[in-house]
């Protein structure tokens, strides 16, 4: 690949290949069918999208707006990120200002509030009142990772859509499509590595593909794991197996290599370990024991404990148990 070709890839692919209509949203056929019924009737209710990052929540919201409003969709669609503007003022000021402005040619406008679970309880209470006040000409689409963080009065006013992590088939199909469109040489082990690293997150898969394509002429397994700071599954497996076999020294050496030489964060190692447990060739009793230790370690790291010490303690615990 020439330097000129690489320079031309500065456009962010996650936006370049974002679906323009609901029918292009992959991996959520049931949700798309429900959303399409609202669009076809041109009668949206308030909606609550919940689920992990990179599963299509924002994409679905913009696809709805594009289908309803056509080329002028941005004039009738306000997107706010609650994690950036989490105070009550954003609800009282920006949302109300948009809801009150005059417009023509459409029955209602859409306010999309991303990461709504970052709003304080006071802001959510103000949002609830705003939803009631402007229900005749504004529809709210709220997006969050955890619907349990949204107050019940808001949930009861919304149609709830739960987005699960995307299936491997959907992620693989999209990766292959983009690679074909961008004339990228993508190996089979490169595809498998991207799907594994993504873990159901389409955004992570696409960004990983773009970053790996810029770093070399061929996107293979080695390039993907290097660019996404992801440990190879066999390394995670080997580390845990050494601990289970009582060889704590070898397990600790592998952990040290992952953290020091490859620069993988402790939290990411825990996530990969959790995803891979049932792929290990271990008895159910051992798998349960590993899960118990993983859960305890994850909690301690989340609470602020030193991740390296906790990971080593986890491996030591697995080595000592019989």
Q: Approximately how much helix is present in the residues? A: 55-70%
Counting copies of identical and different chains, the oligomeric state is: single chain
Q: How many whole angstroms does the radius of gyration measure?
A: 23 Å
Helix tally?
Answer: 16
Mean pLDDT: 86
**CATH architecture term of the largest domain:** 3-Layer(aba) Sandwich
**How would you spell out the order of helices and strands?**
HHHEHEHEHEHEHEHHEHHHHHH
**End-to-end CA span:** 54 Å
**β-strand amount:** 5-15%
- CATH topology label of the largest domain: Rossmann fold
How is this structure best described in words?
This protein is α/β, with parallel strands linked by helices and 322 residues long. It folds into three domains: 28-162, Rossmann fold (3-Layer(aba) Sandwich), CATH 3.40.50; 167-227, Helicase, Ruva Protein, domain 3; 233-320, Zinc Finger, Delta Prime, domain 3 (Up-down Bundle). It has helices spanning 3-7, 13-16, 29-41, 57-69, 88-100, 121-133, 152-155, 168-181, 188-198, 202-215, 221-227, 233-244, 248-261, 266-276, 284-302, 307-320, and strands spanning 47-50, 77-81, 109-114, 138-144, 159-162, 185-186, 218-219. It has a five-stranded parallel sheet with strand order 2-3-4-1-5, with helices on both faces. It has a two-stranded parallel sheet with strand order 6-7. Strand 2, helix 5 and strand 3 (109-114) form a beta-alpha-beta unit. The protein is globular and about 70 Å long. Mean pLDDT is 86; it is low at 1-10.
